C-alpha cells in the first residue's frame, strides 16, 4: 500500500492556528499516600498538532477530496511537510542563512507521517476564502 502525500496545491498552515502537544506516554500508579508515581505505558509518543489553513474555493475542493477520498475520511495515514521545519533556511551561528555555491539559501526538509486527528475538520467562511481548522496526529 502506498502512503498518500499532502497535496502541494495547498498552502503552508498559518502560524496563528498552530498548537502542538506531545501525548503523555505515562501510566499513573495508585499510591496510598504521597505524590503520584508513574511508569511508562509505551516507549514512543505521538504528537497532536492543531493546524489552520486559509484557502480559496478551488483549494478547499482539493482539501475536501484529499480528506474524504484519498485518506478515506481521515482513516488512512499520509505524509505532510513539517510546517515548523520544511522549507526554512539553514542558519549559521550568527543567524544568517547558509548559502549554496550559486548563492541560494540551503533549506531544511522534514516530513511527518500523520493521521487526521480525532475531530473532523472545521471550516469557516471568511469573505471569499475558507479557513479550515484540523488536527493531525504525528506518528513516531
Q: Tell me the β content.
A: 25-35%
What's the story with the biggest beta sheet? 7 strands, mixed
Oligomer: single chain
Q: Which bin fits the share of residues in helices? A: 10-25%
Number of helices: 1
Q: Any idea what the shape is?
A: globular
Which segments are poorly predicted (pLDDT under 50) over 5 or more consecutive residues? Answer: none
Mean pLDDT: 90
Beginning-to-end CA distance, first to last residue: 19 Å
How large, in whole angstroms, is the Cα Rg? 19 Å
Secondary-structure content class: mainly beta
Order of helices and strands: EEEEEHEEEE
Give the tally of β-strands. Answer: 9
Please describe what this structure looks like:
With 140 residues, the protein is mostly beta strands. The protein has one helix and nine strands, in the order βββββαββββ. The strands form two sheets. Strands 1, 2, 5, 6, 7, 8 and 9 form a seven-stranded mixed beta sheet that branches. The longest helix has 14 residues, at 57-70. The protein is globular.
Short descriptors:
10% helix, 7-stranded mixed β-sheet, 140 residues, 9 strands, mainly beta, two-stranded antiparallel sheet
